[in-house]
Amino acid sequence: MSSLFPALVDGPGKPSGTGVPPDEVRGRVALRFGERSLTYGALAGAAGAVAARLSGAGRVAVWATPELETAVAVTGALLAGVAAVPLNPKSGGKELAHIVSDSAPDLVLAAPGDELPSALDHLERLDVDVGGSAPPPPERAGDGDPALIVYTSGTTGPPKGAVVPRRALAATLDALADAWQWTDRDVLVHGLPLFHVHGLVLGTLGPLRRAGSVRHLGRFSTEGVARELNDGATMLFGVPTMYHRIAEALPGDPELARALGGARLLVSGSAALPVHDHERIAAATGRRVIERYGMTETLMNTSVRADGEARAGTVGVPLPGVELRLVEEDGTPITEYDGESVGEIQVRGPNLFTEYLHRPDATAAAFTADGWFRTGDMAVREPDGYVRIVGRKATDLIKSGGYKIGAGEIENALLEHPGVREAAVTGEPDADLGERIVAWIVPSDPQAPPSDAELADHVARRLAPHKRPRVVRHLDVLPRNEMGKIMKRALVADA
Ligand code: MCA
Ligand code: AMP
């Protein structure tokens, strides 16, 4: 296949299409993280040096801090044709141990000086040198070869590794370039984590594929967004929680309003952006946020187009190359474009993952016999084809801050606490996070129940801080049906 990053590879194999003379690309800033940045020339050298070290490796883990080294490590792995497994540096012991044993990387790439947890002790470590310089080995990997393995939560059990092929990266990023008129002149700003598709694929590999630039904030702040958009950045990516915080800050922050008003494109995704926040931002800035809809397993499926109508509450139209259908419970496709016939979204196209690592059962269950991926998201289609997501099939999946979190995983962690006899986890609406995690527990000793903070810490230490319960409710007994199954709907109704 042609290179994933035409602007990084020189020579006769270099595909045309960036529209920029190589010399000009070489001196252009590709990545900026805080005070540190790399031009295309420097990135080609640094990622080339990583690639040269990796050639022959099976799979590598990347300690995905929001730093320059992570971007260089993943780019280097992709240049070498080696699959990268991004690790959340805040993963707790249990989560990390699972991901590392399941993905079995040959080595771990990290920034010099980063302290790695003991779960990674057995792995050879490669310190990423952002000042390194070596030509990358020739790109030999094929379209179907794995590029990334991204761990994503299901309703029960530990996270599954979605194997994302190189073709999916190219297909999704090029489809977004078409939908968003995304070019080498765009300078993206965001503060998204780099261990998920949104921040890593769209937010880091996206600008590099376009020969454009990205400025990462290290951590999200409205001040950082305002500063960068007022200083040449053209696009902003964020999850709804970030746009909600922007909407909250706008009334008292004219600099922020000016920044957003001057942006070329404001894009939200990973969860639904409430219409109220859409409208508050539009009223204060004169600009409308557009939404796109994706998933770890499918990368991006739909988007409101830059040249289309930015309609709040919808995720736009299928991207070029993506086939999308709505189906009824029994699998019958819905043909109506009436804004009210609800069905599950199923998709097909080059943007899809290939499998869940070591989980043929889960992979088979995720696809229909004729190759459509079942997203589990429920939607309607407007007469003009705009997709409006109205809910999701599984109540045991919670979206909090844009992170997908499986209730079962948290229940299992809570049950490992000696003070917990029974546990059930639900999501409830939260203005900031979209949904917040609620733990319903029956304490082992009602006279001395564990404190809320202790349970939150317990889950954060084992799994990850974003999976910790924000609310803990105590019960004498959990409501169960005759089969013994916990009736979560009764819990939510009682709240
Ligand atoms: C608090 N903290 C704790 C505890 N309590 N740490 C350990 N134990 C505790 N008990 C720490 C947290 O680690 C965090 O530290 C800080 O306190 C604040 O925590 P929290 O309130 O959870 O975080 P936040 O600052 O409110 O985070 C909001 C956020 C975040 C920034 C919006 O949720 C976020 O980055 N979301 C992005 C999710 C995302 O990228 N999803 C994409 C997946 P510290 O501040 O130091 O971290 S979906 C996807 O990829 C698909 C394809 C798609 O469509 O996009
Ligand atoms: P993840 O599994 O973490 O990749 O999250 C994918 C899920 O996020 C999808 O299945 C949707 O439920 C949700 N999602 C992503 N983008 C949007 C959006 N713009 N509006 C509503 N839900 C979204």
Please explain how this structure is put together:
It contains 14 helices and 25 strands. About 1% of the residues have low confidence. The chain is of the alpha/beta class and 495 residues long. The structure holds methylmalonyl-coenzyme A and adenosine monophosphate. The site of methylmalonyl-coenzyme A (MCA) has 25 residues, from helix 6, helix 8, strand 13 and helix 13. The site of adenosine monophosphate has 19 residues, from strand 13, strand 19 and strand 20.
Which ranges are low-confidence, i.e. pLDDT below 50, for 5 or more consecutive residues?
Answer: 15-21
CATH class of the largest domain: Alpha Beta
The name of the CATH topology of the largest domain is Rossmann fold
Task: Count every helix, treating DSSP H or I runs of 4 or more residues as helices.
Answer: 14
Main β-sheet description: 9 strands, mixed
Classify the beta-strand content into a percent band.
25-35%
Shape: globular
Global structural class:
alpha/beta
Topology of this structure?
Blueprint: H1 22-27, E1 29-33, E2 36-39, H2 40-54, E3 59-63, H3 68-80, E4 83-87, H4 93-103, E5 107-110, E6 124-127, E7 146-152, E8 160-165, H5 166-180, E9 187-190, H6 197-210, E10 213-216, H7 222-229, E11 235-238, H8 240-249, H9 254-262, E12 265-268, H10 275-285, E13 290-295, E14 299-303, E15 317-318, E16 323-327, E17 343-348, E18 355-356, H11 360-366, E19 373-381, E20 387-392, E21 397-400, E22 403-406, H12 407-415, E23 420-430, E24 434-443, H13 452-462, E25 471-474, H14 488-494
Parallel strand pairs: 1-10, 3-4, 3-5, 5-6, 9-10, 9-11, 11-12, 12-13, 24-25
Antiparallel strand pairs: 1-2, 7-8, 8-18, 13-14, 14-15, 16-17, 17-19, 19-20, 21-22, 23-24
Helix pairs in contact: 2-3, 5-6, 7-9, 8-10
